[in-house]
Specification:
Elements lengths: L19 H12 L2 H12 L4 E4 L1 H11 L8 E6 L3 H8 L5 E3 L7 E6 L2 E7 L4 E2 L6 E2 L6 H6 L9 E3 L6 E2 L4 H6 L2 E2 L5 H7 L2 H13 L2 E2 L1 H10 L8 H12 L5 H9 L2 H5 L19 H18 L8 H9 L4 H4 L1 E2 L5 E2 L3 H15 L4 H13 L13 H11 L3 H10 L6 H25 L10 H8 L5 H17 L4 H15 L7
Parallel strand pairs: 2-5, 10-11
Antiparallel strand pairs: 1-2, 1-8, 3-4, 4-5, 6-7, 8-9, 12-13
Length: 504
């Protein structure tokens, strides 16, 4: 394959020359990093080329365009040196090197806290079954750039004295006009690595790019190929998309192209459902709006983690139980009774299949299960016991639950929206008052396990756990009790449990 010319997009015989002003900008960016300057000098002294390449160049150009010029922290370098020659160049200069990717031509290194990945020019073939490449060394920089996923990642800047920018496929122009293309035919690129289709989705959110018609057509026709990709890699790209500031357009591409049908079918399934308030086109568009509103609340909270993957997954997936629970009611109404219960199970199953960490799976499932609980609050009819249970059931997810519930109001009726917001304000105020008086964040029985065993004269075991649960439920129901009252309630419960007639 090394003798073949690089693939070019149809209609483009060659890219336009890189303007001198951009050349100068990139030179200045490279010079911001002493490590890059020294690296280029070491490779040149050894008789090799070295180029900053890929996302590093793209992000450097974007930062320059925004007036915040900076060299990215982790740097990708490509070179005509073979891996063993690269290691020799780095010897005595890098504080550490690693060769976990050396079979693919990549040497990792760290120099004064800067991480480098240095890869030999490649011209790989893919078997298009396992997606594993048959590694083949390339003979030129352009040949190496031709195998990159998108034109905006197929640019390079020389670390030699000239600092030449190489852009054979028009990546700079695409970056300027916010267009996403592949260096060659999109179907060939995605056949080589179907994960590139999910990367296209991510770049819509991350960089604000719009895929051209050829890319969209290839994604749509080849969506099924995504099934060849491991869940871990799908998970990583999906998460990166969700963690961007504005992921809606990317998620719409994810669904419209059919990619979601392969890896997250619960999301496109929402398109056919009408929500119970008849205020939205469908539950799918409602869910995307909930996600947008949750992100806004997350960003506005100075005490919140941001970006928050758990909150964003919950906002996107909180209604996935609706398709399975849809029922047509009299007078044209539609109901989704217990969709939060079904949804929590579906969330747990899907996120587990995508290999999300267990704590993330359980947190998103619990938020899905709890997101409707507030609607029983009515106009504040909940007892203090109900408020305590709401807080206790949410546990450390309470702040996220607040944001999810508020975001779930997407009605266009301003009066109704204001009423819902005021009602939730009321609930939060009650939670604050009770929390100050009772420390709701750490609700525990008024008697601990040792006291239970001493009062009832029983050894450690299941019965102690039953007694502890009874006392916790009592604490939630009635609030804090004096130790004497708690002991009396415990003894009465024990007698009832054992069928003892206390009046005898």
């Amino acid at each position: 394959m090394s003798g073949q010319p690089p693939r070019r997009p149809s209609g483009l015989s060659a890219a336009e020359p890189v303007p001198p002003a951009v050349q100068e900008t990139v030179r200045q960016l490279v010079d911001l990093s002493p490590v890059l300057t020294e690296l280029g000098g070491r490779f040149a002294a050894a008789g090799f080329e070295a180029h900053l390449v890929g996302g590093s160049v793209r992000d450097a150009l974007l930062s320059a365009g925004s007036g915040t010029a900076q060299v990215p922290g982790d740097l990708d370098i490509t070179t005509d040196a073979r891996p063993e020659q690269t290691l020799e160049v780095l010897r005595g200069w890098a504080s550490s090197t690693w060769n976990t990717g050396i079979a693919f031509g990549t040497v990792g290194a760290e120099v004064r806290g800067v991480r480098l990945e240095i890869t030999t020019f490649r011209a790989d073939r893919y078997d298009r079954e396992s997606r594993n490449p048959e590694v083949a060394w390339g003979t030129s920089l352009v040949e190496d750039l031709a195998r990159r996923d998108f034109t905006v990642n197929a640019m390079a800047v020389s670390l030699g004295p000239d600092r030449t920018v190489t852009d054979p496929f028009g990546g700079l122009r695409d970056l300027l006009v916010k267009r996403l293309r592949t260096p060659g035919a999109a179907v060939d690129s995605f056949a080589d690595d179907p994960l590139r289709m999910l990367r296209a989705v991510r770049f819509v959110a991350q960089l604000g790019l719009t895929p051209d018609d050829e890319v969209v057509a290839a994604m749509t026709s080849m969506a099924g190929e995504l099934a060849r990709i491991t869940p871990e890699r799908v998970n990583a790209e999906l998460s990166k998309t969700l963690l961007q500031d504005s992921p809606r357009a990317a998620l719409e591409l994810f669904v419209d192209s059919g990619l979601a049908d392969v890896v997250l079918p619960e999301l496109p399934a929402l398109r056919m459902e009408i929500d119970e308030h008849h205020q939205h086109k469908d539950v799918y568009s409602h869910s995307l709006t909930v996600l947008e509103q949750a992100i806004a609340l997350e960003k506005a909270d100075p005490d919140a983690e941001s970006p928050d993957l758990v909150l964003r997954l919950a906002a996107l997936l909180h209604d996935v139980g609706k398709p399975a629970t849809r029922r047509h009611e009299p007078r044209g109404r539609v109901s989704f009774h217990h969709h939060e219960v079904v949804g929590a199970k579906l969330v747990r199953k899907r996120l587990t299949a995508l290999r999300y960490p267990k704590d993330v799976v359980e947190a998103v499932a619990r938020l899905t299960f709890l997101h409707l609980r507030f609607h029983g609050y009515g106009r504040g009819e909940w007892t203090d016991s109900a408020v305590r249970r709401y807080v206790t059931d949410a546990g450390d997810l309470l702040s996220r639950l607040h944001k999810l519930v508020r975001s779930d109001s997407t009605t266009r009726n301003k009066k109704r929206a204001a009423a819902l917001s005021a009602t939730y304000d009321s609930l939060e105020e009650r939670i604050a008052v009770l929390s100050e008086a009772e420390n709701l964040a750490r609700v525990r029985p008024d008697l601990d396990g040792n006291a239970i065993m001493e009062i009832l004269g029983i050894p450690p075991g299941r019965e102690v756990g039953e007694a502890w649960t009874f006392l916790k439920d009592l604490r939630l129901e009635r609030g804090p009790l004096d130790p004497a009252d708690a002991e009396a309630e415990l003894r009465a419960w024990w007698e009832r449990r054992n069928g003892v007639d206390s009046s005898a």
